[in-house]
Write a structure and sequence with these properties.
With about 550 residues, this protein is mainly alpha-helical. Helices cover about 45% and strands about 5% of the residues. Helix 22 links the parallel strand 6 and strand 7. Bound molecules: iron/sulfur cluster (2 copies).
């Protein structure tokens, strides 16, 4: 992998001297380790998207359709008419610079075009030139730039160096959301057939097999059954994990990585323990076997198509409401777009916990509740028999995954759970958590090996905060509630802060939750010894 050759001492040397070149110069150097492979034509065909054959960003000549300028011009016009936010974001930036040093990619790279204000300006300058009177008359003097092939290359480089994390928007006095500008930028590139593999292939997989990872329905079923078998070995209890059960009360949807990747898998074990222990009437679906939504990293059209799958399946199975697992983009889509794209879901009921009677009014329209809200409510009502000592081998801190934190405001629920299932929780510095949380550096489809230098640079602020609590409190695990985080944080920490693991919140729930009739547990869900519960100890005996 690219990071093998990247030395820490090189990456922390961040060049902050502005380049001599004017920012209006669109020239970009596609340096190894800082860009992603392009989508293959077969994938784009499968998605009915335009494509220009095989090419890579390092090619001198990019294959563009003959009328590419017209396509982009029409694309901008259509989006200005359709999305009021886009028009406002193009017009109201006063270039105050409050957002400038808030992006992790700027902090880690020092590249001024990774300042959110300048990233947006790459598109805004074309808007000014072609769509405003001042730009049409004064051109460059009014901040306008001509749309050239070099600008397209520049867009590709910088709109795929933004993880759409929205940290910058928290600091903008005008509420400009640069992530939305990136989304439009990516949509425009897609109109020319320009996209990246690690966005388009998961999308195609999702349409073909139901999930981003391309796991077929029988593979999905095998994975769940494997987890049930393994849990029986750990706990002595065979849990029920129904799939495609018509008439169940609740449809449960999780990101596909939860049943296919590590450390996600231990979160899955935690869900299964929880659902068994409270006797939940629920079902998995082999059709909606993906909660995540990579459409968010591609276009509004793709967001809508993927989101609708979950609701179509809820209707087919006849459930009352939907419960969602630990995922990031799933929740941003749910909270910010579902209603106007596919909702309101009037055929479902407002979620009510069958255990506590709590009505989740915040989900009155989407009819979908986040598992951390659901579990926190169970704990608050004393419905779970928890022994936090069973997580004493962990000293956790919590990474607010960008989307659940900033897009949903899920700040207290995960912390409430963590404090009830573990004894040694420590927060990272306050300007790196909650609404101000730093991105993992690899979201929005950028978590590829070929992009490793940019990932490590972008992840530096997050790793730095982890390093702080590791040194101060001996923190040894970073908890989070996002499938992308669980995939991208381990290599990031291995590079910057070795010996800190990554885990889901419900993995620790699964460790702490004492199941009726379980055999004495001496290991956690990873098979690692639990401190104080080793065979023959007093705690092990009490735990029976
Ligand atoms: S959305 Fe995140 S990655 Fe994109 S410019 Fe803002 S802070 Fe940077
Ligand atoms: S903080 Fe807002 S108004 Fe100020 S430069 Fe950034 S995007 Fe523009």
């Amino acid at each position: 992998m690219a990071e093998d050759k990247l030395k820490q001492e090189d990456l922390v040397q961040i060049e902050l001297t502005p380049p001599a070149r004017d920012w209006m110069d669109p020239t970009v150097e596609f340096r190894k380790g800082t860009w992603n492979y392009t989508a293959v034509p077969e994938t784009l065909d499968y998605l009915s998207l335009p494509n220009q054959g095989k090419w890579q960003p390092t090619d001198e000549e990019w294959p563009l359709p003959d009328n590419w300028q017209e396509i982009i011009h029409e694309g901008i016009k259509e989006r200005l008419d359709k999305y009021r936010s886009f028009k406002i974001f193009m017009d109201i930036c006063v270039r105050c610079g409050a957002c400038a040093d808030k992006c992790h990619f700027f902090i880690g790279s020092g590249d001024p075009k990774n300042m959110p204000v300048l990233r947006a300006e790459l598109l805004r300058s074309i808007y000014r030139n072609d769509f405003t009177m001042a730009g049409k008359v004064l051109g460059k003097i009014a901040g306008g730039r001509k749309l050239t092939r070099a600008v397209i290359k520049e867009w590709f480089y910088y709109f795929f160096q933004c993880t759409e994390c929205r940290r910058c928007s928290v600091f903008c006095p005008y509420g400009i959301d640069t992530a939305e500008i990136t989304m439009i930028g990516r949509e425009l590139l897609s109109l020319l057939g320009l996209g990246i593999e690690w966005v388009c292939t998961p999308l195609a997989n999702c349409f073909r097999t139901g999930n981003h990872l391309g796991v077929q329905p029988h593979g999905f079923k095998d994975s769940i059954e494997f987890a049930v078998d393994e849990l029986e070995e750990i706990t002595g209890i065979r849990v029920n994990a129904p799939i495609n059960k018509k008439g169940a009360e609740i449809l449960f949807v999780a990101p596909s990585a939860d049943y296919f990747a590590s450390p996600h898998y231990y979160t899955l074990l935690g869900y299964l323990i929880l659902f068994h222990e409270i006797g939940l009437d629920y079902t998995w679906s082999s059709y909606a076997s993906e909660g995540g939504n990579f459409g968010l990293f591609h276009s509004h059209e793709m967001i809508k198509r993927l989101n609708s799958k979950i609701y179509m399946e809820a209707k087919r199975l006849g459930v009352k409401w939907i419960l969602g697992g630990e995922c990031g983009h799933m929740w941003r889509v749910l909270n910010q777009y579902m209603d106007t794209m596919n909702g309101p879901a009037d055929f479902l009921e407002v979620p009510v916990s069958p255990l506590t009677g709590t009505k989740f009014e915040n989900a009155a329209s989407t009819k979908m509740t986040h598992i951390s809200e659901f579990t926190a409510d169970l704990i608050k009502h004393g419905k779970l028999n928890l022994d936090p000592k069973r997580n004493d081998h962990w000293v956790p801190t919590y990474h607010d995954s960008c989307n659940p934190a900033r897009a949903m405001g899920l700040l207290e629920e995960p912390r409430y759970i963590i404090k009830h299932v573990s004894n040694n929780f420590h927060e990272m510095p306050e300007n790196t958590i909650r609404e101000q949380t730093f991105c993992c550096g690899s979201g929005a489809g950028l978590g590829t090996d070929e992009n490793m230098e940019m990932r490590l640079r972008g992840g530096l602020p997050r790793a730095n905060a982890v390093s702080y609590v590791k040194e101060k409190f001996d923190v040894n695990v970073l908890l989070c509630m996002c499938a992308i985080d669980k995939a991208t944080l381990p290599p990031l920490l291995e590079y910057w802060v070795p010996d800190v693991e990554v885990a889901g919140v419900h993995e620790l729930v699964g460790n702490a939750l004492m199941m009726k009739g379980e055999k004495p547990r001496t290991t956690d869900l990873r098979g690692e010894p639990m401190k104080g519960f080793e065979e023959g100890t007093e705690e092990e005996a009490k735990d029976v």
